[in-house]
Design goal:
six-stranded mixed β-sheet, 13 helices, 18% strand, alpha+beta, 315 residues
Length: 315
């Protein structure tokens, strides 16, 4: 049995975290970063800095071991102290000839950063569920895991070894997962949605059942029984956490799986996809798909093919 719906969603969205660069600094400094078009993360591995984020009234101090994740397209300024006039960060990095740069002798501060790649079709499922900004402090309950991962990432950069690129990719993927775990456990109550639902142990058994066998004709009573609740209590609590009714969540998840199948296998009959997801007729599946996604299965497949052709033409 699948015991981890969160992993299912990370796989569905093809979330891939990569460390892309960093910098060291000394003396007074301030860098302005443009609004990212991807989820961006960074960590302070030495010293401290102040982060001013578009839309937030006050700068936040980041100490050694603190980690930030920016899911919204907002500009940011990292500085040794508030109030300094920033310079364009992209000019600094392009001038260095790579993704690593040094300000002054680089002895007082060190930073590493990266981004998260997502599937063009299913990626919004993850990105839109995240808050615009996450700040995980080194003093949090997850400090040990963050400290080890950051130390390993720094070592991989300082002393390249065989397999270093893959090791860095795996470490940065773990860092991203740890950020999400820390946010689920330590953040104030999230807005109702699937991310909040995945952090609720009371409905976890029902989520595991639906993710393990999405094609099954699940009834509300089956799911409520698995959570040791009455039907009414379960339905009310599930909707309060997920923002939708349990069987609506199941339908939405089926359609996400269908989108992936349509995009990845251009020759598989739509009727076969429908049957694999528990629909007895192609028309019933197509109606549900259009109701949830706003387009027909055929249009979804055509869009995926057009996107693939465009990528190949520009590669």
């Amino acid at each position: 049995m699948s015991a981890d719906p969160f992993s299912d969603i990370l796989r569905l969205t093809q979330a891939q975290s990569l460390v892309t660069g960093g910098f060291t600094a000394s003396g007074p400094w301030a860098l302005r970063f443009p609004a990212p078009d991807k989820i961006k993360f960074f960590a302070v591995v030495k010293g401290h800095c102040w982060v001013t984020l578009e839309g937030l009234p006050e700068p936040a101090r980041f100490d050694t071991g603190d980690v930030g994740l920016l899911a919204a397209p907002r500009t940011s300024v990292l500085a040794s102290e508030p109030g300094l006039e920033p310079v364009d960060a992209m000019g600094l990095f392009s001038g260095s000839g790579n993704h690593w740069a040094q300000i002054g002798d680089g002895s007082e501060f060190a930073h590493i950063g990266g981004h998260v790649l997502l599937d063009a079709t299913s990626g919004p499922l993850l990105r839109e569920a995240l808050p615009p900004w996450i700040h995980i402090r080194a003093s949090s309950a997850h400090a040990t895991a963050f400290s080890w991962l950051l130390d390993q990432l720094v070592q991989e950069r300082a002393a390249p070894q065989p397999g270093g690129l893959l090791a860095s990719a795996q470490l940065s993927q773990l860092l991203f997962i740890q950020i999400l775990r820390a946010h689920l456990q330590d953040a104030p109550p999230l807005q109702a949605g699937w991310l909040r639902a995945l952090g609720d142990p009371r409905i976890a058994p029902a989520l595991r059942l639906m993710h393990n066998d999405p094609a099954r004709d699940w009834h509300l009573q089956d799911l409520a029984r698995a959570c040791a609740m009455s039907r009414t209590t379960f339905a009310t609590h599930f909707k309060a956490q997920a923002g939708v009714a349990p069987l609506t969540y199941l339908t939405d998840w089926r359609m996400r799986l269908a989108e992936r199948e349509l995009a990845e296998d251009g020759n598989k009959p739509i009727g076969s996809i429908a049957q694999a997801l528990g629909y007895t007729s192609e028309s019933a599946f197509s109606n549900a798909f259009k109701r949830v996604t706003g387009r027909s299965p055929t249009a979804c497949r055509q869009a995926a093919r057009a996107g693939t052709a465009s990528t190949l033409a520009t590669s």
